[in-house]
Design brief:
Helix content: 25-40%
Order of helices and strands: HHEEEEEHHEEEHEEEH
Number of helices: 6
Largest sheet: 5 strands, antiparallel
Strand content: 25-35%
Shape: globular
Oligomer: single chain
Amino acid sequence: MENLWPKDLLGEMSGTAPNDIATLLEIQTLGLPSATGGLVVGRIRDRSDQSFLPARVWSLYIEPIDQPSKTFEFLVVRSANGGYPVVVQTYHLPKMPLMRCDSKVSMTKALAKIFAEPSSKSIIKTFAEEAMAAGAVQRSQGEPNVSSARSIEIGPLFDTPDGQVSSVSMFGLSGHLSNDALELLRGRNRRVVEPLKDRFVVTMSFVGTVKITVSKEELDVIVAQAARSLKGSS
């Protein structure tokens, strides 16, 4: 587990990787399961307070595979206006609790530095051991990552005082999507579906904005269910 944050993670996408902070975090998070043989995974949560926009807050959580109850808030990224500069905060590294980043490059360097710290490696190593203790099997380097099936359900539209919405439940997330949000999803609009190597980042606006990283097969299911919901089918 020496190379927890590959320096070349963004190398092949240097010309196309977006400056969007949340998407950059998603891209970086993909390096974690690759470096741990799939034993430790990361996810991004938008914690922005809608009453204080345009200020934004994102948290990067890590956890042993299939053990969401052991989620650990690894770092927090804060922005005053939704863009750069940002402040990256860590709670487990007292010598570097706050790091200011003025660009995508400096933020990537900050993340690499954080994940290179012995304390960071220790936490991730502990999570990997917990995953193995629970029965997870570490993949060899280069072995394809075959994800298990994950529950995806988008219900039919129904009327509310705020307009038509649909109940959504997937990957441990639940909420309501508006008719407009479903239309964007059905059309694979770039505002909500972004290609990411052989996967996709899907952005759905519930009460706040949630980003999830999905496979091509999972995206096909999401799009199909969005289309079915818009037709009013159950």
